[in-house]
């Protein structure tokens, strides 16, 4: 028996040893593969460098570089203005490269593929990988050149010419040229590519042409007030990488992780990311063209959908940023253990987005009850936004009156939040045919059908859940049954694409000047468009079109205010709130600052870093 036991123990030990050897072999294989890839990339870079030097000799012999950079934002050897803040960070006495920046996302990312992805979290990841020609200065809000060193605008505003910086490269070593800029437009305008949102923005842009390797010309079919902004948000795609998908567009449309660019970071495998990984990890781009090296060794986003789990992870020091819920913010702010390692940031972003309830006006080709303006307006009168602010947001929010920020020039200051008024709501509903016909407190139409609807919301947002339950009780007292429909994020995206819901609550981001074409123009009711509630108003369409084509700011603002008046009267959405940012950031993150665009935590080029003594993750 003792011998048999020893034999079993020996087998177990042998099995453990074999397993350890297999793990070690796997790790060595991963290292060897990484080294092989690195050597291949270095070999490619040497070949490119040799070719470039040969070309440079020829150019110098012809004097072709004399004054080549002109008088643009990147003229001479001066630091491009877009990198000034990042450069100042590197000049701090405690600056050190290295460490990881680890954040959490509250939803399961469905895809990172540009233009196929639709959520703000994927856009945040992409902002470190893809780059644009221009970028706003976070303080002055003026335009700085990023990929472009200079640009000119024709007298009629229809032609914009951009001169690219020399030496631009994508992360795989291929040169970035004006041909890639032109390809990006051609790619997105191809109807086979699932990018209806991008095409909605680009509809006024007639052509983009590469005049030579470094000169791209954008020609608009008609004036567009936000032309520079439009070009600034258009990331440049690599033709040699993305061009193949014009031959197989469905592969691109159904993809999950096709992402390659010229930015400071890259995916280790630009084709290899999948949602089931539960995280996104970016590494520095070793060929980054910018004059300031990326400070972090890794950028990591962990998918943590549960609010409590995110807080626990932050308390344990495993993520560096935590967006607090109002219900917990004051308690966390006064928590000595938390404040010892994290700073609180409480502010209303100057470009804060807004949350809303969208009333779907058409379903399965037929109008719904919410196609009636009286019903939508009644629902807004029944939505006690101030109670939501007081009881759910605990005062850390303000009412949203329209898509326009209340402190922007687009907003008509005479408009005030729709008041909570049950009597007015009931009068509107009665006029639309909904009455308490059976004296049982339930509103029914002429056919005796009760006023009942589902309200879809993201299931893992506790504040939204509390708001929906509050509204359920408020509506019930008015004779309307709201059925809460908690939904996974991926399912919500599908619901929006199919317009398969009664009502839904979500949020939109805002900008310095908000273009509402995507959300409210009738043309955007198409599949994949952002007018997900099938709202149509010809007068609003005309105002939106006129405002977008008006370059005189004073005239344009008046047009926006007229458009706002229509939205206010029509209430296609019940506009809810704009939230304050309530964030805790690990104190080891240095360089944080408030700007005209908000906290610079996600700014690129990156302005934050971790001093060497406080770095947590080794190489």
Keyword list:
619 residues; Dipeptide-binding Protein, domain 1; 5-stranded mixed beta sheet; alpha+beta; 35% helix; globular; Dipeptide-binding Protein, domain 3; 4-stranded mixed beta sheet
Distance between the termini: 50 Å
Give the fraction of residues assigned to helices.
Answer: 25-40%
Structural class: alpha+beta
What Rg is obtained from the alpha carbons, in whole angstroms?
27 Å
- The CATH level-2 architecture of the domain at 354-579 is identified as Roll
According to CATH, the homologous superfamily of the domain at 354-579 is Dipeptide-binding Protein, Domain 3
Main sheet makeup: 5 strands, mixed
Strand content: 15-25%
Please identify the oligomeric state. single chain
> Roughly what is the average pLDDT, rounded to an integer?
88
CATH class of the domain at 354-579 equals Alpha Beta
What is the number of helical segments per DSSP (H or I, 4+ residues)? Answer: 19
| CATH topology grouping of the domain at 354-579 | Dipeptide-binding Protein, domain 3
Principal-axis shape equals: globular
Q: Strands of the largest sheet, in order across it?
A: 18-17-19-13-20
Q: What this model shows, in words?
A:
The protein is α+β, with helices and mostly antiparallel strands and 619 residues long. Among the domains are: 81-284, Dipeptide-binding Protein, domain 1; 354-579, Dipeptide-binding Protein, Domain 3 (Dipeptide-binding Protein, domain 3), CATH 3.10.105. 35% of the residues lie in helices and 18% in strands. The protein contains 19 helices and 24 strands. It has a five-stranded mixed beta sheet with strand order 18-17-19-13-20. α12 (373-382) runs antiparallel to α14 and α18 packs antiparallel against α19.
